[in-house]
Design brief:
heterotrimer, A alpha/beta (about 325), B mainly alpha (about 650), C alpha/beta (about 250), A: about 325 residues, Rossmann fold, five-stranded parallel beta sheet, 8 helices, elongated, C: about 250 residues, alpha/beta, two-stranded antiparallel ribbon, 13 strands
């Protein structure tokens, strides 16, 4: 029976949501292939009972790699675990979440096994003996369809995109220990530092909400901050806002501020001058929420919503909260 | 008349003072000659001489901008001239009693009368100037702490006063001592003479001798003192005026990249000789500082300090520089700071105000050139602009394929398919990419179409004219772009190049010429005026809200185009437009020039706020201009100061297009 | 110390990218190319290490078509000592094929440190760095925001979803660079002028077809000109839905 291996990820002792997305998609692929799904859990000595719940998403078994060395992500060590899992299950398809872990791990494994790897896919299907992946290229200016060949194929899936399918509610997957080789690595992990969630720098954020003069005052930025917190994003400001003292200079995006290229840039109450554009034109997707349908940003945005910020933003927050479940 | 000992001493003193004087002057001349060759300074020598002589004689340099002070200065100046000649008499009398250069005729009488009156007037001038300097203490000379030590001024004022006083005392005493000198021709001295009326002849002779020697020593003191003080301007000023630049203010010279190793100025010897001469001509008068927008809004820059600080530096390093050795520190390490050179907006107010025609802008840009091209040290924000220019041909790095978006839905002919035209309209980067300026482009297109003007635009072939790169000191990038632009332009046949931006006007009209092509450039405000005058467009009648015209620096001071836009506004408004406090050649910069549009303004207050406030204060409801930078800066100023209901920034083209009949 | 920087020439972020007629490649007419911005961090870091450690040499290598030489010219203008173009007209969609071609070409040389950007902005795969490390058997640290290099080892701060992970690793090693590592220098004009005149050394590189191909390129779903989602707060659910299902950014 061919096997699809779904690599899962732990954070703070719990499975990350994207792990279930990966397992769900693995199930889809396996169904098309006529294969089974094994989920791989790599974790430190803490309990791993949660792994069994992956059965409801379609994993028939969970390979558990439990070792002190695996408590925190380490590329070389996790690679060894994944390679062992591939060998143990004879997997022909391996799926990863395209999280920071997955994006570091998948290429190492693919190169070690000489397998094709489609990274950060937004769509994945199986057809006639191979994976077909969809992903955006050139910052979303074209959509590409990729065809993979070879006895072993791998893909990493963009997080928060693929649905979690609870196909077998209540069904537990069997937890099987993974036979690990002696884990060695050249690099040594010295320290793990958690990011202070409230101080995500705009340069680092994948999702940015930018407020302009239309926000009418510093207090109203609290609403943007709440939405940003839900999305794990950051709040930016236009020059006008910074000059008025409502937001600090480090939040300024624009020609004389920071140049950013997040996946999603939501402009709220800002007209979007060319000077601001110079700072965020590299954003993958630009949304403009503005009362004025003729504001410059409205011509340049990918999605426009004409409306009063103060009516729209609270509803936006609700909808996002609902989406993020 | 002196005895032989006296004459010997006199001759020795004169020789010593003269030797010192010559030595000091030669030092400065040699320093000036360390500079690079400067192309066009020796053309039309007679015209230059006449111009210089006229300015100096009439003291226009001093009287302009500061009339009262200027007149006082004129008195002192003329006093100096007279006394320079009178000194000949003075020295001559040591060898021959009653020596008179002009003989003993009526002309000589007039001469002595003149000197007498001048002595009094000069004394009054000196007094007035002393009161101004030490009593009134205007900002121009007290801020920042004067680079030239104020004792210099005190010494000179005292010396001049002393010269006048000793002259009068001397003459007065002479009158009493000897008979036969007509008193009537020397009224002032005659007024002094009674002081000595009852003095015994021997004592008086001694006093007289004292006055004579004091006067002489003061003259020699001047010789010794002048070269090392700002009063060198007595000589260096007229020299500077002779070698003045006859090009529009702020015109920059290209660099021969293949022919030189050093680009821009790191050391004094990298400057042109005229730049160095400027340092010695500077009077520390502060006229430039008084009009500098950067200084007025609290930035580190003072054009006066740029000159004086480098002068001090040059003299300190002179012994090394003259031997061809490197200085102990570079200019930017010890004489000036980055904050200063980057604060300049190249508005040209300093150069306009300078009585000795110093050229501050080319010097500052030369310093920028070195910083950018040799040392890669410049404000971070400019990297985005430079990269944008390199990659997409505009300083905001907007996609070059979107350059014609502004014209969508409009009938704008593109040169590639237009054939021969009268006007090739260079729309400019702002006009293509900046929302506010795009509206101006659309207005101008409407006007041109309405008037049936035969024109075309370059469309997607158009790239930035290179002005931001050039002003920011990235001459290499500018020349690369300019040569590409010239190649594109040369493919097409047109009579005039039309620009909707004064920076384009200046760079295409003046500066591209030094790269091999000369264009006849027309600014859109001039064209609009012409179209109205020819009746090719008409305006609907109606009242306008009160308007004022903002003289953009590159349109006004640089190119003296003041009247055409005002004429148009007059037609629009039915009356002459209001004038702000600072207008015409004294217009105040919007803050966007000199590549400052692409940099952060973090020190002091905002230049554009100052100008916007001025516009609001003059009673206008519309501030009109002919420049996309000014439009953006004034518009921002209005928004930032919350004046949206009261004042509106508009381009002339927009105002006219809205009223096309 | 010998440092290698792997760079890639990519289309400018503002370029209008459209599928070519064959629907598999991208139309290159009118497209402007730049050095991949993440590779610039790598170049800058290499140059800084060179400035701090006399005797260090920096070599920049790129795998790509003939016009990629321009990226090497820019690298030369920044101040690298040596450049090399591995010339190929093959498509480079398969990260592993790219990594293999690079590793093969570099087999003869030994480097103490290999730097490259964390990803290239055209495909965003983030593969080549770790794959090259794997093929050469070197330690690899990715998405690095701070790097300290010593004689025999390095310390790196790697950005992760949760924060930062601090690693030490022995040299030779591969490091992929993230934004924030440094501010790339603007090349001096002297550098630019010399680079303009330079002859770029090149050698042919064989890139095998690989196990991954682009089989179709299509324009993205109806985003040109932007979509008016609606008016007022009632349009918000639709917006969120579109961002999730169509744009796939939420």
């Amino acid at each position: 029976m061919p096997m699809v291996l779904a690599v899962t990820e732990m954070q703070d002792g719990r499975l990350r949501k994207t792990s279930r997305e990966v397992v769900s998609q693995a199930r889809q692929i396996a169904d098309a292939m006529g294969a089974e799904v094994t989920a791989l859990m790599m974790t430190g000595p803490a309990n791993a009972e949660e792994g069994a719940s992956l059965g409801s998403c379609g994993a028939s078994q969970v390979l558990l790699a439990r070792a002190t060395l695996l408590e925190n992500y380490h590329g070389e060590l996790y690679r060894q675990a994944v390679l062992a899992a591939i060998a143990q299950t004879d997997a022909t398809v391996v799926l990863f979440p395209a999280t920071s872990m997955g994006r570091d791990l998948a290429p190492r494994v693919a190169a070690a096994r000489g397998a094709a790897l489609a990274s950060d896919c937004t769509g994945l299907t199986w057809q006639e003996g191979g994976l077909i992946a969809q992903k955006p290229l050139y910052a979303g200016k074209v959509m590409a369809e990729l065809t993979l060949t070879g006895p072993l194929q791998m893909a990493s899936l963009r997080p928060n995109l693929f649905p979690v399918r609870d196909l077998f509610p209540g069904q537990n997957a069997a937890i099987v220990p993974l036979e690990l080789p002696a884990l060695t690595a050249k690099a040594v992990l010295q320290e793990v530092r958690r990011r202070d969630a409230s101080h995500l720098d705009v340069s680092d954020a994948e999702i940015i909400l930018c407020g302009g003069r239309g926000m009418r005052g510093p207090d109203n930025f609290g609403l943007l901050e709440e939405i940003a917190a839900l999305l794990g994003g950051a709040v930016a400001a236009t020059r006008a806002v910074v000059d008025s003292g409502w937001r600090p200079h480090r939040d300024q995006v624009g020609q004389t501020g920071k140049v950013v290229s997040p996946n999603l840039y939501i402009m709220c109450g800002a007209s979007g001058s060319i000077q601001h554009w110079a700072g965020m034109s590299g954003s993958r997707c630009i949304v403009a929420i503005n009362k004025d349908p003729n504001a410059p940003i409205m011509q340049r945005a990918d999605y426009r919503l004409i409306g009063d910020l103060f009516e729209v933003l609270p509803v936006l927050k609700e909808e996002i909260a609902r989406l993020r479940g | 008349m002196l005895n032989w000992t006296g004459r010997t001493v006199l001759i020795l003193l004169i020789l010593a003072a003269a030797a010192w004087f010559v030595r000091q002057i030669l030092l400065r001349v040699h320093l000036v000659r360390l500079g690079r060759r400067d192309p066009v300074r020796w053309d039309r020598p007679f015209e230059r001489l006449a111009w210089m002589a006229g300015r100096v004689a009439a003291q226009i340099c001093a009287i302009k901008d500061r009339p009262f002070t200027g007149v006082m200065h004129a008195l002192v100046f003329w006093g100096f001239i007279f006394f320079a000649v009178a000194t000949i008499n003075h020295v001559g009398s040591a060898f021959a009693p009653g020596f008179s250069l002009f003989g003993h005729n009526h002309f000589a009488d007039f001469w002595f009368l003149g000197v007498d009156l001048v002595a009094l007037l000069t004394l009054m001038g000196v007094l007035a100037l002393a009161i101004r300097r030490y009593g009134v203490r205007p900002a121009g000379i007290t801020q920042p702490q004067p680079i030239s030590r104020s004792p210099h001024s005190a010494i000179v004022l005292s010396l001049i006063a002393g010269l006048m006083i000793t002259y009068l005392l001397n003459q007065g005493a002479e009158m009493i001592l000897s008979a036969g000198r007509p008193f009537a021709w020397m009224p002032v001295s005659s007024a002094v003479a009674p002081l000595f009326a009852g003095v015994a002849p021997d004592t008086l002779a001694a006093w007289n001798s004292l006055f004579w020697w004091l006067h002489l020593l003061m003259v020699l003191g001047f010789l010794v003192f002048i070269p090392g003080s700002k009063h060198l301007h007595l000589l260096s000023g007229p020299v500077n005026l002779f070698f003045r630049s006859r090009e529009p203010i702020g015109t920059l010279q290209p660099i021969d990249f293949e022919g030189s190793e050093q680009y821009g100025a790191a050391s004094i010897t990298d400057y042109s000789w005229k730049n160095i001469s400027d340092l010695f001509a500077c009077i520390d008068c502060g006229r430039c500082q008084d009009v500098c927008p950067a200084f007025a809004t609290g930035k580190a820059l003072s054009p006066k300090v740029v000159m004086m600080s480098q002068r001090k530096y040059t003299l300190a390093q002179a012994h090394l520089l003259l031997k061809g050795q490197p200085p102990t520190a570079a200019i930017m390490e010890s004489a000036l700071s980055d904050d200063e050179i980057w604060a300049c907006t190249t508005c040209g107010a300093c150069m306009e105000a300078c009585p000795v025609r110093n050229e501050h802008i080319p010097a500052i840009v030369d310093l920028r050139r070195n910083r950018v091209m040799m040392e890669s040290q410049f404000p971070q924000e400019l990297q985005t602009a430079f990269r944008g220019l390199e990659t997409n041909g505009n300083p905001w790095n907007a996609g070059s394929s979107s350059r014609m978006e502004w014209a969508e839905g409009l009938d704008v002919p593109v040169m590639a398919s237009a054939g021969e035209v009268e006007y090739l309209w260079y729309v400019g980067c702002a006009g293509a990419f900046d929302e506010r300026a795009r509206a101006v482009s659309r207005s101008l297109a409407a006007i041109l179409n309405h008037a049936g003007v035969r024109y075309g635009v370059l469309g997607l072939e158009e790239k930035c004219c290179g002005d931001p790169a050039r002003r920011a000191g990235n001459e290499y990038l500018f020349q690369t772009m300019a040569l590409e632009n010239i190649q594109v332009l040369q493919q097409y046949r047109f009579t005039y190049l039309l620009t909707s931006c004064p920076h384009g006007l200046h760079i295409f009209g003046e500066e591209y010429a030094r790269l091999g092509t000369r264009f006849t450039v027309v600014h859109h405000t001039s064209l609009i005026r012409q179209l109205l005058a020819e009746g090719r467009i008409r305006l609907e009648s109606g009242n306008s809200r009160p308007m004022t015209w903002h003289d953009s620096c590159y349109l006004g001071r640089y190119h003296r185009l003041y009247e055409a836009p005002r004429a148009v506004l007059q037609q629009l408004g039915g009356a002459a437009p209001l004038e702000m406090t600072r207008h015409h050649d004294r217009s105040f910069c919007c803050g966007g020039g000199g590549a400052r549009m692409f940099m952060e303004e973090s020190a002091g207050t905002r230049i554009n706020h100052s100008r916007t406030a001025e516009a609001a204060a003059c009673g206008a409801e519309i501030v009109a201009s002919g420049c996309p930078f000014c439009l953006a800066m004034l518009d921002d100023g209005i928004k930032e100061k919350g004046l949206e209901g009261q004042l509106q920034a508009q381009d002339l083209a927009q105002l006219v297009a809205a009223r096309l009949a | 110390m010998k440092i290698l920087v792997l760079i890639k020439q990519v289309p400018d972020t503002e370029a209008a990218i459209k599928p070519a007629a064959d629907q598999i490649s991208v139309a290159e007419a009118g497209v402007k190319f730049i050095i991949n911005p993440y590779d610039e961090y790598a170049l800058e870091e290499a140059l800084r290490i060179k400035e701090a450690r006399p005797g260090t040499t920096v070599k920049a290598v790129t795998l790509g078509p003939a016009h990629s030489a321009e990226a090497l010219r820019s690298a030369a203008a920044m101040g690298v000592d040596e450049v090399l173009l591995l010339k190929t007209e093959s498509p480079l969609a398969d990260g592993l094929a790219t990594a293999r071609a690079l590793a093969a070409a570099l087999a003869g040389d030994s480097f103490d440190l290999i730097l490259t950007g964390k990803e290239s902005i055209d495909d965003g795969n983030m593969q080549v760095g770790p794959m090259v490390a794997e093929l050469l058997g070197l330690a690899c640290l990715t998405v690095v925001t701070r790097l300290t290099v010593a004689e025999e080892n390095l310390t790196a701060e790697c950005e992760t979803d949760a924060g930062l992970a601090l690693f030490t690793a022995p040299l030779p090693a591969v490091v992929t660079c993230q934004k924030g590592l440094n501010e790339p220098r603007y090349p001096s004009i002297r550098g630019k002028m010399a680079a303009m005149k330079m002859v770029i050394p090149e050698q042919s590189a064989a890139v095998d077809p690989g196990l991954l191909r682009i089989t179709r390129l299509t324009p993205p779903p109806a985003r040109a000109g932007g979509k008016l989602v609606g008016e007022g707060s009632t349009a918000v659910p639709e917006l969120v839905k579109l961002l999730h299902t169509e744009a796939k950014v939420l």
